[in-house]
């Protein structure tokens, strides 16, 4: 170590030939004083430049687009299905009233009461059918929207994983500055 330091001092102080392979006293020295300079290793290629930076920007844009689609996606039941289910739920007990009226009319042997009982029973059964149809339509529409939401979330998760990997490569120090001169010792 001391030998290499001595050689560096002698070569930097002497008038060296113009051959750069032998001369350490080149334009890197500000003065002809006895200084030992060291150079950091050459810089590694920056992986975030060019394709990676463009890919990161593209992934950010795609994730933002997917987030907007997810916010706009409605997984609730359609209003018509809700209305059908509620009306069916509220009106369906009329079927029981129609059964009671039908039974009373049959016991009293009154055809007018039996007719009213049948009409009320049919209205109640129609309400039951309306409620069931509302539930089926609501579940079907909501199921399709939830499936689409899951696909969008899965795609967003894949893109976020890829983005994290790209940013991790960029932050791992592969783009550290290099090639800078610094003074180890001054005599």
Could you write a compact summary of the structure shown?
Helices cover 66% and strands 6% of the residues. By secondary structure, it is mainly α.
* SS summary, helix count: 5
| Major sheet strand order | 1-2
Please tell me the total number of domains: 2
Give the CA-CA distance, first to last residue: 16 Å
Estimated share of beta-strand residues: 5-15%
What is the chain-wise order of helices and strands? Answer: HEHHHHE
Structural class: mainly alpha
Taking the sheet with the most strands, its summary is: 2 strands, antiparallel
> In angstroms, what is the radius of gyration?
42 Å
How many extended strands? 2
The overall pLDDT, averaged over residues, is 77
Q: Give start-end ranges of low-pLDDT stretches.
A: 19-30, 175-179
Helical content band: 55-70%
Which labels suit this protein?
single chain; 187 residues; mainly alpha; 2 domains; two-stranded antiparallel sheet; 5 helices; rod-shaped
Please, could you describe this protein's structure?
With 187 residues, this protein is mainly alpha-helical. The chain has helices at residues 2-13, 51-72, 79-91, 94-108, 111-171, and strands at residues 35-39, 181-186. The chain has 2 domains: 2-45 and 177-186, no CATH class; 51-171. 66% of the residues lie in helices and 6% in strands. It has a two-stranded antiparallel ribbon. The longest helix is centred in the C-terminal third of the chain and has 61 residues, at 111-171. It starts with a helix and ends with a strand.
């Amino acid at each position: 170590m001391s030998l290499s330091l001595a050689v560096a001092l002698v070569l930097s102080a002497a008038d060296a030939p113009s051959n750069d392979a032998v001369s350490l006293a080149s334009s890197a020295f500000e003065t002809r004083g006895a200084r030992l300079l060291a150079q950091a290793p050459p810089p590694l290629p920056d992986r975030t430049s060019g394709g990676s930076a463009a890919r990161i920007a593209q992934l950010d844009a795609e994730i933002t687009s997917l987030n907007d689609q997810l916010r706009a996606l409605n997984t609730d039941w359609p209003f018509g299905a809700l209305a059908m289910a509620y009306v069916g739920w509220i009106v369906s007990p009329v079927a029981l009233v129609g059964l009671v009226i039908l039974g009373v009319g049959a016991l009293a042997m009154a055809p007018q009461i039996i007719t009213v009982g049948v009409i009320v029973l049919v209205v109640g059964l129609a309400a039951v059918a309306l409620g069931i149809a509302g539930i089926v339509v609501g579940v079907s529409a909501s199921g399709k929207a939830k499936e689409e939401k899951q696909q969008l979330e899965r795609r967003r998760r894949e893109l976020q994983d890829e983005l994290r990997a790209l940013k991790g490569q960029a932050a791992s120090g592969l783009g550290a500055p290099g090639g800078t001169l610094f003074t180890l010792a001054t005599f």
